[in-house]
Structures are given as C-alpha cells and as structure tokens.
Hints:
By secondary structure, this protein is an all-alpha fold. It has two domains: 2-133 and 238-269, no CATH class; 148-234, no CATH class. It contains nine helices and no strands. It has helices at residues 2-12, 23-46, 65-88, 98-123, 125-145, 153-160, 173-189, 196-210, 214-269. Helix 2 (23-46) packs antiparallel against helix 3 and helix 3 (65-88) crosses helix 4 (98-123). It is rod-shaped and about 90 Å long. 26% of the residues are buried.
Amino acid sequence: xxxxxxxxxxxxxxxxxxxxxxxxxxxxxxxxxxxxxxxxxxxxxxxxxxxxxxxxxxxxxxxxxxxxxxxxxxxxxxxxxxxxxxxxxxxxxxxxxxxxxxxxxxxxxxxxxxxxxxxxxxxxxxxxxxxxxxxxxxxxxxxxxxxxxxxxxxxxxxxxxxxxxxxxxxxxxxxxxxxxxxxxxxxxxxxxxxxxxxxxxxxxxxxxxxxxxxxxxxxxxxxxxxxxxxxxxxxxxxxxxxxxxxxxxxxxxxxxxxxxxxxxxxxxxxxxxxxxxxxxxxxx
Length: 284
C-alpha cells in the first residue's frame, strides 16, 4: 500500500517548464571568471611571470615551471569562482530528481568555464594584438623597404663585426647587411640551414667586411649558425612547454568550475553535503 502511494505521488509530480539552463547565471559566472583572469594575468606580469621574447613567442630563458604552475593556479581560482556563481545564481528547480539537479549544476559550471574561455580567447587577444601590432607592422614595412630591424640582426652583427675598420667593403655596409639579413631570415624561416653555396658566399662577405682570412671567416659563420639553431631550438621547446601547461590549466579549470558549481547549487538549495535518500528532491 505504501509503495503504491509512493508511486502515485511520484506520478503526480510533473517537472515544471522551467528552463534547464540559467543563461544569466552562466554569463555572470563567465564574466566574473574572465575578470579574475585579467586581474591574475596583470598580477602575474607584475611578479615577473613573463613568456614574451623578442622573437614574438616564448623565451626559453624566461619561461619557468613556476609560470606553468601559475597558469594552473590562475585557472583554478578564476574558474572555481565563476563556476560557483553560476551554480549559486541559477534558477531553482522544483520537482527535479536529485541526480538531475547535480548534473545540471555541473553543466552550469562547465558552460560558465566554456563561455569564459571563448570570451577570453576573443577579448584577451585584443591587447595582445595591440602589443604586437607595431612589430607586425614593422615586419611588413621591412619586407617592403628592407630598412626595418629583424630578429636576425644580432647574428648578422656578430658576423660583420670588423676587426679591421679599414677593411674593404665598408663603403656598402647597409646594402651588405640588408642582404645578409634577408638571406638568414629566408633560410631559417623555412626551417632550413644555409646551403653550402650560401655558406661560402657569406664567408666571403664576412672576410671582405672584417678583414679576416677565409678560414677564420668560415669559422665565424659556422659559430653564428650554430648559435642561431640553438636559440631557435630552445624557443621551440619553450613553446611546446607552454602549450602543455596551457592545456593542463584548461582541463583543471573545467574541473574546478564544474565542481564549484555543484557546491554553489547545493548551498543554494540547502542540499550540499546531505545524502539524498529519495529518488526525487522537491525544493520548496
């Protein structure tokens, strides 16, 4: 008899036509998470967690494990607070099963994290574009006028540093320098080393500019090329590490947002930490 009454009561409970997703709560959590991310990014930059190098990417000398750990802490804090607000501010569901409420709260946290990630990718890219806009513009102008500085300038400086100021070839220094920069930039941009013919030519130019013998000029060229490849390899490794840390922080952020949303929703309904014995939970 008691079981029949219970089934009859459950049959009479009809889930109300309340939206399953409280988009206002999701948006509030996402905006809060994004704002906290901006604050923590500014704080991290002030504390020296810098990953920008003159190459326009990641510098192996400045990127440390501490920077990656800071990314994870930043994702945990901002995502957890955003997810908590999404769960705490969502619409109260009446006559919904406890497991369904738990799932919806988790989904609200995940949606808040996803919205914050998408908005962050769009909005946070604007300051970055502004910061590197001058560099990109300068690179374009350099390609047109061959007068703008290049990341390869430092290596060419090493090659063309004269031990004898009266050496031949000093009269056409700007033209020679621009040619060398273009040669280095084009070769390493394609991921290739200088060809044998290019090496011989570069050594001759270095010899003419610096007054070194052919053998010494070739040694200087080889040393410079070795340094270029070492720096590029270090930059690639640093970029790989950054990508791994960012991916890990995104996963941890999603988990933190989802977990915090279930806590926020449970505290809102007064069910957090309480074991549900019934199959349904009627929130009054």
